[in-house]
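Friendly challenge for the regulars: who can give me the structure tokens for this chain first? No prize, just bragging rights.
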Amino acid sequence: MTSIPYSATEPLPQEQLYVRAAEQFGAALERLACGYERDTDRRRDLLQEIHLELWRSLAAFEFRASLRTWVYRIAHNVAAKHIWREQRARLGQMLDLEAAAEAPIADATAGLEEAQVLQRLLAEIHRLVPLDRQVMLLYLDELDAATIGEITGLSAGAVATKIHRIKTLLARRLGAKE
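First reply, four minutes later:
Bragging rights claimed.
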């Protein structure tokens, strides 16, 4: 696919904006869906739902935020709704930071191969409530606190605090040194 040029003075039509967004952020959207949904079929459905909502939302995109911020905000909003719907079926399995800190720790990861450690990390992230999960997934996607704040509606300071607390919790739960 070729890149579509962008000019702030000449907004792109919805279809071209969608192609541009899908081209630039498709891999990130797949990682995001993977971070929110473990089941392969549900992950595929979530990714399709994200793309559909992204396409719909671009009709109202006015370039007040960057395309990247817009795409992430739409994707995370769709994923959070997905989680809340799924939560109804699995009440009581998600944990806030305090409950996660007190939950029993699974077997230590010593001696596990890197793929198993990453799988375990993702499983621990899946246990967090949607907002904490969202912050951590955005952080792992290398977004800064200010950008994460724009996407989540939190202040950059609150994001930085959450990241620190989640990293500390995850390090402790995975038996790693911070």
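The two ends are 42 Å apart (CA to CA). Residues 1-9, 108-112 have pLDDT under 50 and may be disordered. Your move, everyone else.
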